[in-house]
């Protein structure tokens, strides 16, 4: 009798342990299933919440499933898919339709992507100042989308086109891109890239670091070396916090040259340090081209650089004015045409 009672107790104990194990796994395991509620109104709220999380994911993230939400883990420090040095060539004729076919299938409208199986630490807006460079943009999109995907970046591409044919102002376009991107999503990192700059190594990460980052360390045009120590152009990345601290770019560099040296000054004044990848990983191939129309070298710009220290607090994000003329969403990018209010009678000579 006593033996029977003991067997029963042992069986009961075993059952309890089994239940406890199942309970613990459902809490800590990689898959957490939460059933949608029965009540119709509550069910609607539940799915709204899941959809909202999909767009604004905080770690741990949520992936949409048909009936349940799956918890995603943070993306690994070292992304597993990187391949290192890349072969890049610009001889192939690449139309936008063709690039869309090649790389567009996993993108959301607006050139938006987030890794499907992990949550990126940063939300990155990639800003490309633009005018008349359609062919370059096709090459850039063809190469950069797959690289950014392999880097597991949560990103969107913003092409900021200067409206009209007035004198070009690249820095003001980049400020406008920053402001427009922030209207859409709470980005915490901004990469500003020339449209003709393609990296030659996918280990050059398009994300932000403790110090503002200069990514284009070795450009083929400069024999893969820095032309001067403080150069800070081509492709740079700043966190929102860093960009705010320096008041963004100056709005007053019209025509070619100097705007990147001005932001270099701002960084040195307000933040002191910059970071760079090593010279092998930081290699770039630039698309050769003639000087753009309405973007002549401005001989006044180098002189303005002596004034950065006096002007940067009032010339930048806090004095930015522009008018959005048009926003178009392509599968590969968001195209925003911006009137930068070119001063009448502006003369670069
Ligand atoms: C200009 C910069 C330019 C650099 C490299 C400098 O003289 O001021 O804007 O990026 O040359 O071409």
UniProtKB/TrEMBL annotation:
Q: Does the keyword Transmembrane helix apply?
A: yes
- Subcellular location, in the record's words? Golgi apparatus membrane
- Annotated pathway, please? Protein modification; protein glycosylation
Instruction: Show where the Galactosyltransferase N-terminal domain sits.
Output: 75-208
Gene Ontology process terms (BP):
carbohydrate metabolic process; protein N-linked glycosylation
Report keywords, A-Z.
Answer: Disulfide bond, Glycoprotein, Glycosyltransferase, Golgi apparatus, Manganese, Membrane, Metal-binding, Signal-anchor, Transferase, Transmembrane, Transmembrane helix
InterPro entries referenced in this protein's UniProt entry, alphabetically: Galactosyl_T, Galactosyl_T_C, Galactosyl_T_N, Nucleotide-diphossugar_trans
Highest taxon of the lineage: Eukaryota
Under catalytic activity, the entry for this protein gives: N-acetyl-D-glucosamine + UDP-alpha-D-galactose = beta-D-galactosyl-(1->4)-N-acetyl-D-glucosamine + UDP + H(+)
Membrane spanning stretches: 6-25
Which EC number(s) does UniProt give?
2.4.1.-
Look up keyword Disulfide bond and say if it applies.
yes
Principal EC category? transferase
Q: Which GO terms describe its cellular component?
A: Golgi cisterna membrane; Golgi membrane
GO molecular function terms here?
beta-N-acetylglucosaminylglycopeptide beta-1,4-galactosyltransferase activity; cytoskeletal protein binding; metal ion binding; N-acetyllactosamine synthase activity
Cofactors: Mn(2+)
> What membrane topology term does the record carry?
Single-pass type II membrane protein
Q: Where is the Galactosyltransferase C-terminal domain?
A: 213-290
Q: Which family does it belong to?
A: Belongs to the glycosyltransferase 7 family.
**Function noted in UniProt:** Responsible for the synthesis of complex-type N-linked oligosaccharides in many glycoproteins as well as the carbohydrate moieties of glycolipids.
Q: What is this protein called?
A: Beta-1,4-galactosyltransferase
Organism per entry: Austrofundulus limnaeus
Q: What is the lineage of its organism?
A: Eukaryota, Metazoa, Chordata, Craniata, Vertebrata
Q: Gene behind this chain?
A: LOC106531648
